Amino acid sequence: MRGGIPLAGILCFAVLGAGVAGAAPAAGSSRDVSLSTGGSFTLSLSVENRTPAQGEPFRVRVSTSGAVDNLVLEWMGGTYPVLETGPGRYEGVVGVDLLDPPGSAALVAEGRVPGGALLRAEVELVVAPRKFPVQELTLPKRMAEFDPPTLRRIREEADVLKSRFERVTEPIRWRIPFLPPVEEYRPTNFGSRRRINGEPRLPHAAVDLHLPEGTPVRAIAGGIVAFAGEQFFGGRSVVIDHGGGVFSVYYHLKEFSVSDGQKVGRGERIGAVGATGRATGPHLHFGVRVPGGRVDPSLLLGLSGR
Question: Using the 8-state DSSP alphabet, how is residue 141 labeled?
């Protein structure tokens, strides 16, 4: 998250009696909309950054003047729960995938008051472009070209992870701030456009942390292990579901000490840095996904607990 940017994009809707919220005010404005007679009820939506860049996560805050049922965020075609942080106060983490095109995108908070009245607040955001580095890699042929059985394995493993990432689970187990996965956090290569042996490949949707083999790796937040196993590319791999569409990913581990379905706590050791899978030396491939897609882990770790 860019530093020094105040809360912006605050939208506030009021529903009176059994009214249903209508059109949103312009992005960045703050006003109440009265829809019928009776006791008033308000819902407000705020974001810390109305111009998130490609690969950038950001925090969303929602507040209400009373109880709300089924309060959710709608973002980039998905619907996600929020974390209750106090009476009438909620927050969520969403983001822009590193491959999303620049342009406008609507963020919505929606819920129902007791009795069935719908509350809906919307803010218009603008996705900004981000310049990513180009990384030229030269690898042995065996690490860059694959026979049909290997390609089939790669596709099957990708399908398994895709099915895990599509789950939106509750309860939400993450809390801000998130914890770095290693003590010495020196990230490189997020979003780099990779060329392997002169051929363009998919961008690197994670950071690399070059550390000695055996360096302990820990969970960045509480969660449930969504995957712990061996992959062709990732080697010994762990994926943690933190709830609400937030996941963390740890590849090339020397070993892992957790299993599928296991509950883990923030800071709990889950494995050690290694060089398994398609790796040229010891390092941790560390990625995160939030509602909206793959984002820069360093920006997620930089979200303030305030």
Answer: H
